[in-house]
Amino acid sequence: MKYSGGYDFAGSDSGVDLRALIGWIPDHQSLQSATFERERTWREMLDAFRKGDVLVTLGTGSTVSSLNPEIRLIPLHSYACIGLEDDEDRTVTIVNPWREQEQEPAIENRIHSLTLNNLEADPSRGKWLLSWDDVCRTFDSLYLNWNPNIFPYTLTHHRAWNPQEKHDHSPTQNHQIRVIFEKDPGTTQVWALLSRHIVDHDAPAVYIALHAFEEDGNGVSFSRPESLTLMGQYQEGPHCLVKLTPGTETKRLSLIASLSVPDGVTAPAQVAYTLTVYSKVPISFDASVPPALIKQHVTFQFNTLHSGGNILQPTHFQNPQWQLKVLEPTLKKGPTGPVALRSRGVRVRFHAIAPKDLPLNIKVYRTSGRRMNDVEDGVLAFDSGMYNYGLAYGQTDLFPGSYIIILSNFVATQYGGGTLEMSSEARLELQKSPAEGAGMHFKSCRGRWDGPSAAGGPSFHRYWHNPVFELKLERNTEVALKLQMLDIKQGTPYIPINLAIFKRDTVDGEQIEKEVATSGPYRESLYGVRVRPCRIPAGLYFVVASTYSPGTQGSFEILLWSDSLLALKSLE
């Protein structure tokens, strides 16, 4: 009650109000969300309801369309559930707490009059029996308040954000709290509730989120995205609840409490919060002193040149990239010779922060050190998991070698900036990887394989009927080219394509075409195929874009970068 604003706390949804009144754990489920699990929720809710461990209320949206004309629901209103029956229809008994009654019963009889045994459906008095399916179709929100006593072990942490202080160029405030499992958690659930204290009812709106990361015994986040994290979404309400089932290898949980102040809003001097962790196995806060780490900060910006979306987008590798070099471990003299100071890789922690409406993901690839343009250019060494708004986080061990860090948004048109922080046990070399073709002249041409121009590869003997482009160089020039399919739809098979540069020579009075450079064997790739940078003497050349199989139709674009001006035109 105290951190809800006292006895004059502002009314909110029924879950928040019940939390303030009786202290039960608020759990808001959006019935119309694509991620709502109807069957699992029913089973868990029914089991707890029979034991008296959950209070159930329902909320309507701004518009209400009832399936039964006798049921007149009020928009943006809460209704109490006083009965659940596991019958054929899975009946839910609902009552309007503001209903009108002809005669108010005596106080000692009110609770008894609302018991399921004495209640019959009476639409005129705001009492209805609905099936669970109808409830899910009619109402907008399900508010569950769970009895905290179902968890024998509880941890409570009180702290405050200071939004007016600038931290690492961050638009958000992030506090990390680590929890240790004192024994194997097995398959039990762990819940964490973040509650923002309300001191001033007139204070400007701020947004909070709670993120949970599973860690092994060495504090390393798992590299399997499906078991890596549980990310919370930013919300304006006072509570964020995270529920997760730790994996068998999980020894710790890293909980990150985040605060975001909208642009144009004057940040309050302090925003206090309480983090409560509920568990069925013994837990404790990790009070160990974290190792001293070397931190490096770089800023990033998603814009028209450096924004590519997720890995299923052809433009994914246009996202910001950094070259990371992990050095060989330092050697010291031992009784039998030099001994490495580290028997494992370097512990590296990645932490990207951005505004709350910008989804982020971090991937690290083991590469030769040059910029990545395709998934085949490297081997995945780390993935921060599912895209999360405003935050991407994780840590792993990296062995000596060269890596590429790719920070991506989910959709290429989601623009914005932030900060990437990298913390490590040893000093690492980090530098921004220039964009593809940076500092070079750029040209592009579009074409299409259609009818006679869909001639296929050389083995089908109609190769020169494919789209041909004339490339004229006035002097020796370094060029790099990319052939990209257009209008690629997800789920459709990729087409094997190739791009080649030829020079025509005359030998014994006969013209022949000599291949100067090529993208390599025909290859299927969402990200296109490339002719690596190469220096070509001045002269007249021909660029041929082809598919492997004749008759394959589709549109394409050729992108060309060069260190001097040149002319590129279609011969069609």
Overview of this structure, please?
There is one protein chain. The chain is 6% helix and 44% strand. The longest helix is centred in the first third of the chain and has 14 residues, at 38-51. The protein is built from 4 helices and 36 strands. The chain is elongated. Mean pLDDT is 83; it is low at 102-120 and 220-228. A hairpin with a 2-residue loop joins strand 18 (331-334) and strand 19 (337-340). With 572 residues, it is mainly β. The strands form 8 sheets. A 6-stranded antiparallel sheet has the order 1-6-2-3-4-5, with helices on both faces. Strands 17, 21, 22, 23, 25 and 27 form a 6-stranded antiparallel sheet that branches. A 5-stranded antiparallel sheet has the order 11-10-13-8-15, with no helix packed on it.
- Rg, nearest Å: 31 Å
Q: Please bin the fraction of helical residues.
A: under 10%
User: How much β-strand is present in the residues?
Assistant: 35-45%
* Spatial order of the strands forming the largest sheet: 1-6-2-3-4-5
Structural class: mainly beta
Principal-axes shape call: elongated
Low-confidence stretches: 102-120, 220-228
Strand runs, count: 36
* Individual helix count: 4
Average pLDDT, all residues:
83
First-residue to last-residue Cα separation: 76 Å
Major beta-sheet overview: 6 strands, antiparallel
